Amino acid sequence: MCSFLAPLLDESPPNSSRINLEMPSLTLLPHLILVLLLVIPGASEARSKKRSSRAKSRVELRTVETCPQTDSNQTVLIVKQWHLGPRTITKGFREKYPQEPSQTAIYNFLSTGVEKAQLDLVVGEGCEGEIGEKFEKEFNGWSYNELRAQPKNKKYEKILTQIPLKLKAKWTSKIHAVCGDNDEQIHNSTVSLSNMRGWYGFLTRFTEKPTTPEQKAEYQESASKLLGYSKVKPIEDLVPKIREKLKTELDSFESSLKKRNESFAAALKANTFTNAAVVIGGLHAKDLKEKVEELKLNCRVMEPINYPAKDEELIESFRRLL
Q1: What are the pLDDT tens digits along the chain (322 aa)?
Q2: How many CA atoms lie within 13 A of 143 on its CB side?
């Protein structure tokens, strides 16, 4: 296995050292004086704080799952990301986003793979087709040609946009980048997720969140209308119907998710590679891993350290209510 795909974290303990209690020789005195000057009170503490701050801000990737080993010479990295919505504009670097550290870590890791010729293919979500000079879709306000003018920018690695788009703009012919998604199913899953959030909001307000009688009456009226009733229904009649709606939308969402994963798998099957990376939201990871296994490919599921599984937790909360 190539070095790019080797484990990223070294958890081995540091080597212990022994203290020499003997007096230093005269030839070592100049070195000893230099050491004493370097550890003047305050200087060492400042350096320590700087190193500590740098260590805290650094984010790395880790492997959380692997596919059963096969005889294939192809490996797929399924990289879980926490990304902004594609319509959020990130130009100007004026705003700090909580997604930036983990997105930068993913970009740097994959960029190293491209630089070392150890990554052949990168597959992105949110669009269809090959990424290159003729690719017109923008992510977070950034087009391919605009990114092409940015690689010398010291902040390029921190630009928040679709990672495969950013990799292709940086490395051009050194990496093959494709959008492996399904536009129709992206729309369907977005609508279903929005509807789930709405029905979930009604359920929690009727069953969990404390609300005033006035607020509860407003929610009753709204829910009754959305469910097609001509008159306001009692909460005990509304809750079972809302659960049914939530289940229908959850089933629709999961169906769209699986169809999108079929598109990612088809993109892998249609392209030649030794090492590929699919950069997707964490909700895709479990089913996509199964589809990669069906293709008899090796795989690793990776995520940034402290990856926030917000979407996964949201879907799980929907399931619990059902």
Answers
A1: 545 565 443 333 333 333 232 333 334 334 433 333 334 444 444 444 444 433 344 679 999 999 999 999 999 999 999 888 888 999 876 678 999 999 999 999 999 999 999 999 999 999 999 999 999 999 999 999 999 998 788 889 999 999 999 999 999 999 999 999 999 999 999 999 999 999 989 988 998 877 888 999 999 999 999 999 999 999 999 999 999 999 999 999 999 999 999 999 999 999 999 999 999 999 999 999 999 999 999 999 999 998 887 777 778 877 777 7
A2: 7
Alpha helix stretches (DSSP H) within the chain:
29-38, 43-57, 100-115, 144-148, 163-171, 183-207, 213-226, 235-270, 285-294, 310-321
Cβ–Cβ under 8 Å, residues 125 and 259: no
- Residue 197 CA to residue 45 CA, distance in Å, equals 49
Phi, psi for residue 318 in degrees, rounded to 5: -65, -45
Do the beta carbons of residue 122 and residue 277 sit within 8 Å? yes
Contact by Cβ (8 Å): 134, 194: no
Contact 186, 87 (CB under 8 A): no
Contact at 8 Å (CB) between 224 and 202? Answer: no
pTM (2 d.p.): 0.79
Query: DSSP 3-state assignment of 178?
Result: strand
CA dihedral of residues 151, 157, 162, 164 (deg, nearest 10) = 70
Kind of pairing between the strands at 176-180 and 121-124: parallel
Could you give the 3-state DSSP secondary structure of residue 63?
strand
Q: Where does 57-102 show beta strands of DSSP type E?
A: 61-66, 75-81
DSSP letter at 72 equals: -
